[in-house]
Structure formats: structure tokens, C-alpha cells
């Protein structure tokens, strides 16, 4: 992958321009024009380096309840259990991670639904296996931005874009107009000269109104980011590990904030612990190999002074999709 492709990948995964001519804005300083930017993005999608460019929503701000769930499933029942869980449209990711609790999935329940009841139903449908509901009690970091750059890619005068806030400070009204906008902009951005104008036309509104709405939702945290999601493996990050700590409650904020400062950490959460699963602090790390992830985990432990951790690697992917909001 050449330097132009790497810089473009870095730009679009950090923050996509919310303007009438976004591809022209992205072309600035790249030495290529906006049409070439669109063609390069198209090529990167064909290579599966870019999964999708769209709004990435704060589901909590839209009234959803979400959680990580760990289920303990006998090895010979895993495929059937995963198929049962995966049928629920709010399950977006489901992985095998070896251990007593070996099936790990993320779930989102729409406004009005009860998370515990949905998980209990899925557990029953999967075979009645024990399940731990592990919602994020506090978020220290949530920003999957992979370092795809190499030395010399960035001009010394160019600064990387800061990520916007991840928490919502304003409510979201669940009405037909807003739901229609969400359902539209969660899809892949069309690679046309004026993509927001095309979306706005389909929604029956002006481009200016749509741009103002999207920018406003980013500002209030309803949208975490409008950006590209990359395929980790295709851009060189072939391993990821969920590092979990048994951290004293009175130190958890301090340790969580330290972990969040590390560039190798994409997610960092405080979650409830259980007698059968005493871990309460979670950090996702990404590396080019399992060995690199293990090195990162040791580095994180050294920086916090806590070595009571485990690293869980995903060994099988049962499901991985972009969550489609307001599916019902």
C-alpha cells in the first residue's frame, strides 16, 4: 500500500468531512483530485481495506441498551448455540474465546426492550447455558482508529484530527423523521460527487438541512463519529486480544484512565464482576500478531502496576456485522 493510500485511510477512519464536497476536502494535500480520491476509496473497498463509511452512533443516546455477554457453552454445542444467538438482529459480534466462558457476543436492545429479558431468552434458545451480562458501567475509551501510517507519511506541519466526544449531552427524539435519517446514514456512503445531496434527496430534505443535522448530532454525541471502519486484517492488524483485569474498585478509575492513554488500546471499559468471573476492567488491543498483543498486554500491566490480568484471543468468528438500528 502506497503512502497516499495510507494517509487517506488514516483520514477517513478518523473523521470524514461533513461538507457538500467531502472528496474534494479529502484530496487537499494528497496530490490527487477529488475524482481520484473517490476511485482510490472504491479500490480500497474492493481490496476490503475499508468496510464502510457511515455514521457510527452512540446507541445509548438513541434509547438502546447494549452489553457484552459471555456464555459458557459445551464445545459440541457451540455451533447450534451461536446460530440461535445470531438470529437476534441486535447481536452484531459473536466470537469464540477459549475458556470457561467461551462465547462472547455484543447485543443491543431497542428502546422499550429489556436487556436482561432478551439475554435470558437467547440463553434459553441457545440451550439454557449460563450467561453473564457485562454492560459498560463506565467507558474510558471508545475509538477504533488503527495506526496505518508509516514514518514519513505525515508532513511535519500536518496534525491528526482529534476525535469528537463519545458521550451524548443532549437527547434524541425518536420520531419518524429522525429514525428515517438514522436508517439512511448508517448505510455505506455513496461514492458520488455530492453524497450527502443524494441522501438528502432520498429523505425528502435539503442537503443543507441534512449536513446541519449530522453535524449537530456529532456535536452532541448522538453520532460518535462519521468515519470509515477498516477491516483490521486487510490493513495488517491480524490479531486482537481482550485483556481483562481483576482491579480493586477503589483503583479502577485511575487504572482505566492510564490504559486509555495507550494508542494500542481501542476500547477500555469498567464492567461488573461475578464470583465465577472476577474481572472488571477490559481493554481491547490490536496487533500484527498474537505475540505483539501479548507484548502490549505486558506493557499495559507494567504501566498500571497490576499484573492480575488475562488476555483472551478470538479464535473463531461466529458473527460480525454493522448493527442496523431501528430494524423493527
Summarize this entry quickly.
33% of the residues lie in helices and 23% in strands. By secondary structure, it is an alpha+beta fold.
- Please count the beta strands (DSSP E, at least 2 residues each): 12
Number of helix segments? 10
Order of helices and strands: HHHEEHEEHEEHHHEEHEEHEE
Principal-axes geometry comes out as: globular
Please explain how this structure is put together.
The protein is α+β, with helices and mostly antiparallel strands and 328 residues long. The protein is 33% helix and 23% strand. It is built from 10 helices and 12 strands. The strands form 3 sheets. The protein has a 5-stranded antiparallel β-sheet with strand order 5-2-4-3-12, with helices on one face. A 5-stranded antiparallel β-sheet has the order 6-9-10-8-11. It has a two-stranded antiparallel ribbon with strand order 1-7. Helix 4 packs antiparallel against helix 5 (115-126) and helix 7 (195-203) packs across helix 8.
Please render the helix and strand layout as text.
Blueprint: H1 3-14, H2 22-27, H3 34-46, E1 50-57, E2 65-71, H4 78-86, E3 91-96, E4 103-109, H5 115-126, E5 131-134, E6 138-142, H6 176-185, H7 195-203, H8 207-220, E7 223-230, E8 239-245, H9 252-260, E9 265-270, E10 281-287, H10 290-304, E11 309-313, E12 316-320
Antiparallel strand pairs: 1-7, 2-4, 2-5, 3-4, 3-12, 6-9, 8-10, 8-11, 9-10
Amino acid at each position: 500500500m502506497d503512502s497516499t493510500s495510507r494517509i487517506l485511510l488514516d483520514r477517513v477512519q478518523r473523521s470524514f468531512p461533513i461538507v457538500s464536497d467531502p472528496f474534494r476536502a479529502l484530496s487537499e494535500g494528497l496530490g490527487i483530485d477529488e475524482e481520484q480520491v473517490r476511485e482510490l476509496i472504491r479500490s480500497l473497498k474492493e481490496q476490503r481495506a475499508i468496510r464502510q463509511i457511515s455514521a457510527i452512533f452512540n446507541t445509548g443516546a438513541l434509547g438502546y441498551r447494549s452489553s457484552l455477554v459471555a456464555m459458557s457453552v459445551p464445545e459440541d454445542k457451540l455451533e447450534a448455540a451461536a446460530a440461535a444467538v445470531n438470529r437476534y438482529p441486535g447481536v452484531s459480534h459473536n466470537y469464540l474465546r477459549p475458556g470457561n466462558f467461551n462465547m462472547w457476543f455484543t447485543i443491543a436492545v431497542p428502546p422499550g426492550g429489556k436487556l436482561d429479558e432478551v439475554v435470558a431468552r437467547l440463553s434459553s434458545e441457545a440451550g439454557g447455558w449460563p450467561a453473564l451480562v457485562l454492560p459498560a458501567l463506565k467507558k474510558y475509551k471508545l475509538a477504533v482508529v488503527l495506526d496505518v501510517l508509516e514514518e514519513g507519511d505525515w508532513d511535519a506541519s500536518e496534525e491528526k484530527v482529534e476525535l469528537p466526544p463519545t458521550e451524548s449531552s443532549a437527547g434524541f427524539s425518536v420520531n419518524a423523521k429522525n429514525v428515517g435519517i438514522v436508517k439512511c446514514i448508517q448505510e455505506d456512503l455513496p461514492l458520488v460527487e455530492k453524497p450527502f445531496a443524494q441522501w438528502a434527496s432520498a429523505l425528502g430534505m435539503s442537503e443543507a438541512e441534512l449536513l446541519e443535522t449530522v453535524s449537530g448530532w456529532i456535536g452532541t454525541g448522538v453520532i460518535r463519529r462519521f468515519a470509515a471502519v477498516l477491516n483490521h486484517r486487510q490493513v495488517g492488524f491480524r490479531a486482537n486480544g481482550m485483556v481483562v483485569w481483576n482491579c480493586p474498585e477503589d483503583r479502577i478509575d485511575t487504572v482505566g484512565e492510564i490504559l486509555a492513554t495507550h494508542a494500542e488500546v481501542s476500547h477500555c471499559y469498567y464492567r461488573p464482576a461475578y464470583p465465577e468471573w472476577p474481572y472488571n476492567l477490559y481493554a481491547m488491543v490490536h496487533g500484527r500478531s498474537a505475540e505483539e498483543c501479548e507484548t502490549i498486554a505486558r506493557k499495559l500491566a507494567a504501566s498500571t502496576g497490576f499484573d492480575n490480568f488475562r488476555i483472551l484471543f478470538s479464535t473463531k468468528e461466529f458473527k460480525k456485522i454493522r448493527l442496523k438500528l431501528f430494524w423493527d
